[in-house]
Amino acid sequence: MSTPVDDLFKQASILDEKDRATLAGLLLESLELKLDEDVEIAWRDEVERRLTELDDGGVELITWEAVQAKLRKSTGAEPTN
Length: 81
What we know:
Blueprint: H1 4-13, H2 17-31, H3 37-56, H4 64-75
């Protein structure tokens, strides 16, 4: 016998990818009952600090390809193309 959750999953599974992602996000948000205001402030401050560093030229930007190459070199991994 199927449960209501099984039935809901079957219904959600036929949704297109975008709608499934939206539904998943809404379900996750519903679990976040209480935001920690101190954490939210800390994240906002960190984002602002990093944006300021970018705007001021205080950090060196590197491409994703450069990051991948560095990781491959340090781990001995082969490219996956």
